[in-house]
Amino acid sequence: MKLLRALVLIAIIAGGGAYAYQLRTTQSNVAVAAPVRYKPDAAVERYPAAALDVREHGRGPVVPAAALTGFALPVGYQMPEETELLPGSPREYRGGYHEGVDFPLSMGMPVAAAKAGKIIRIDSDYTEWSVEEQINGEDVGFRLGYTPETILDKLRGRQIWIDHGYGIVTRYAHLSSVELFSVGSIVEQGTIIGHVGNSGTKAGPHLHIEIRVGEGYLGDGLSGAELLRVLRHAFSVG
Ligand SMILES: [Zn+2]
Questions:
Q1: Centre of ligand 1 from the C-alpha of residue 42, in Å
Q2: Cα(211) to centroid of ligand 1, in Å?
Q3: What is the pLDDT along the chain (238 residues), one digit of tens a residue?
Q4: pTM above 0.70, yes or no
Q5: H or E element: which one contains 24?
Q6: Domains in the chain: ranges and CATH
C-alpha cells in the first residue's frame, strides 16, 4: 500500500514536471528581464530610517513606506472589497491563492500604468494556451496543493510587468493587447500600456493587478480589515 502511494506520488510529480517543461518550451516568445536592483543614490529620494523598520504590507521584505503607496486605480473605478477579488483568496481548483486585485472591467478598456517605472516584461507576442492545457495545468496545481510558477504564469495570460524600484513590481495580467513598448521603456503613471481582456483564463474580461514586493506580493498573509487597510493605502483610497 505504501509502495503504491509512493508510485502515485512519483507519477504526479513526473507528470507535473513534464507539463511544466512543455510550458517552458512554448514560452520562448515572452520577453522577460530580471527585476532591476535599484540602489539608493543621489537621484533617489531618501526616506526616514523609521519608515524602513515597519513591515506593514504582509510577508514581504521591509521596504520604504512611500514605495507601497501612490498606485493609481484604473480610471473611474473603485477598489473592489469582495474577498474573492483580493490577494490571499483561495483558488481551490488549482490548489493556490490569488496574488493580486481583480477589477471586473470590460473587454478592450485601456489599462494605465499604476505608477511610473520601467517595463521589464511585455508580451508583445503571445500565444494563448488551449482550454485543455489550462484545465490540465489547474489540475496539476490541484494535485500538488500549490500552483507551480510556470502554470501560474500561463494563467496570467498576456502580461506587462513594471519595475518601480525597491523590489516593487506591478504586474498587469489577462490583457487582450499591449501598446508598442519594449523591455526597458520608461512609463509615467497613467500611461496607457495595454487593454483589458481575458487571456490565460476561462473567466470573463477583467484586469488582474499584482503589486509584487520582493519575492512576495502585497497583502500576502493579511486578511479582512488589515488587508483592506494596506490595499487602500497602496491605492491612496481613504
Ligand atoms: Zn486575478
A1: 37
A2: 12
A3: 444 444 434 443 444 444 343 433 344 444 555 544 434 333 334 444 434 444 667 787 788 878 899 999 988 889 999 999 999 999 998 999 999 999 999 999 999 999 999 999 999 999 999 999 999 999 999 999 999 999 999 999 999 999 999 889 999 999 999 999 999 999 999 999 999 999 999 999 999 999 999 888 999 999 999 999 999 999 988 6
A4: yes
A5: helix 2-25
A6: 2-234 (2.70.70.10)
DSSP 93-117: GGTEE--SEEE---TT-EEE-SS-E
20 Cα to the center of ligand 1, angstroms: 21
- CA 102 / ligand 1 centre spacing (Å): 5
List Cβ neighbours of 18 (8 Å cut-off, separation of 6 or more): none
- Alpha carbon distance 174, 141 (integer Å): 19
Query: How many CB atoms are closer than 10 A to CB 75?
Result: 12
User: φ, ψ for residue 230 (rounded to 5)?
Assistant: -65, -40
100 CA distance to ligand 1 centroid (A)?
A: 6
Query: In this structure, which residues have their CB less than 5 angstroms from ion ligand 1?
Result: 100, 102, 208
